[in-house]
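Action item from last week, closing it out:
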Amino acid sequence: YLKQEHADRYVAGLKKKGVDARVKKVNGGGKTWFVVRVSEFVDKESAAAYGQKLKQQKVIDDFFVNNK
């Protein structure tokens, strides 16, 4: 998100659904982004599996896995 309040609102909704989520401020492409991060994982495979589970349950629409 480009606005922190939008990211914060999304995180609040995820938390109501029992998802461990938080906002991380990052810079990229000449802009400041407020990225919603979900939990911590030991590897990309388990992160992707959790993302797919949330997507199938219609908790989220889409996701990507990042190492940072």
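Closing note: The mean pLDDT is 94.
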